[in-house]
Design goal:
The protein is α+β, with helices and mostly antiparallel strands. It folds into 3 domains: 69 residues, no CATH class; 92 residues, no CATH class; 70 residues. 43% of the residues lie in helices and 12% in strands. It has a 3-stranded antiparallel beta sheet with strand order 2-1-5, covered by helices on one side. The protein has a 3-stranded antiparallel beta sheet with strand order 11-10-12. Strands 3-4 form a two-stranded antiparallel sheet. β7 and β8 form a beta hairpin. The longest helix is centred in the last third of the chain and has 20 residues. It is globular.
Length: 290
């Protein structure tokens, strides 16, 4: 049984869950066993809070966890015993039904235009696609985390979402040949949005595997770095590379090396490594105590 941990983000105590997805493991097994084993090892080493999904967890016996849990408990002061009058008989009442806990969302926008409106893409969507293409696109897209493409409100449990991630996921759903005309139009907008981040290499954009995903992952990386800098529990940070046939030397060289968070060493390493897209780069950043 997994050792229980304390979550420094939401304050809950639970058994941790591993990162990633067993579905990805099964896909990797289909192609080769070694990447699947490596991915499972990575999952086993990257555990998260079962309640909120945060990586900011620590063992219950850790001093910081003990102090946090003590702060959560309200001390109870016993009053001196006093003679109590005989209570009146209590008429039993029917127990109140327990209501399920309300879900909380980091993003909850009461809008009517779905994800297109939420990411500010209304004018592009209306001007770019004809009615037949809109129908096919909305039919193909379905929903993401319960959110529709062009209608209804938008809710996300986590705040680290942006237009680049949305366009990347939308483009991935349009890979079948029957959506080729729509795919090209989405790809043009994705290239424009990515170009606001850094200069685009058109040849790499069209031909290099994982080049586009580098842009879609940057919001996660930046948010992770910001979280580590605000959290006094983590003192060191490191980069984790996916070691497969597409990984290149810059990622493998920096992977697993420790960088001091407090003196800005991790900041400088982050800026240097993610200054521009590196071929095959799918590195993530995380913190640890020592």
């Amino acid at each position: 049984m997994a050792q229980q941990v304390y979550c420094n983000n939401c304050g809950s105590t639970s058994n941790p869950k591993v990162a990633g997805s067993i579905i990805i493991t099964l896909i990797l097994v289909w192609f080769a066993v070694v990447p699947a084993i490596i991915y499972e090892i990575w999952r086993g080493k990257n555990k998260r809070c079962r309640q909120c999904g945060s990586p900011a967890i620590m063992p219950l016996h850790a001093p910081a966890a003990q102090q946090a849990m003590q702060r959560q408990q309200t001390p109870i002061q016993q009053a001196p015993l006093q003679p109590q009058p005989t209570p009146a008989p209590v008429v039993p009442s029917e127990p109140k039904p327990k209501l399920p806990p309300a879900e909380t969302y980091a993003i909850d926008k009461d809008i009517t235009g779905g994800l297109i409106e939420f990411f500010g893409l209304d004018r592009w969507y209306q001007a770019t696609f004809n009615d037949e293409q809109k129908h096919r696109l909305e039919e193909r897209f379905g929903t993401v985390s319960g959110n529709k493409l062009t209608s209804g409100s938008v809710r996300f449990k986590f705040a680290n979402v942006d237009a680049l991630q949305f366009l990347y996921e939308l483009e991935e759903k349009l890979k079948p040949q029957s959506y080729n005309d729509i795919y090209k139009l989405v790809d043009e907008q994705f290239r424009i949005e990515a170009g606001k981040f850094c200069k685009i290499d058109n040849d790499r954009w069209d031909n290099e595997k994982y080049y586009k995903s580098w842009f879609a992952l940057m919001k996660y990386r930046i948010d992770a770095l910001s979280k580590l800098k605000k959290d006094n529990y983590f003192k060191q940070g490191q980069f984790d590379a996916i070691d497969d046939n597409c990984a290149t030397k810059p990622c493998l060289d920096i992977s697993g090396k420790g960088f001091n968070i407090l003196n800005g060493e991790l900041d400088r390493a982050f800026d240097q490594h993610f200054f521009e897209p590196i071929e095959g780069c799918r590195c993530s950043v995380r913190g640890y105590r020592d």
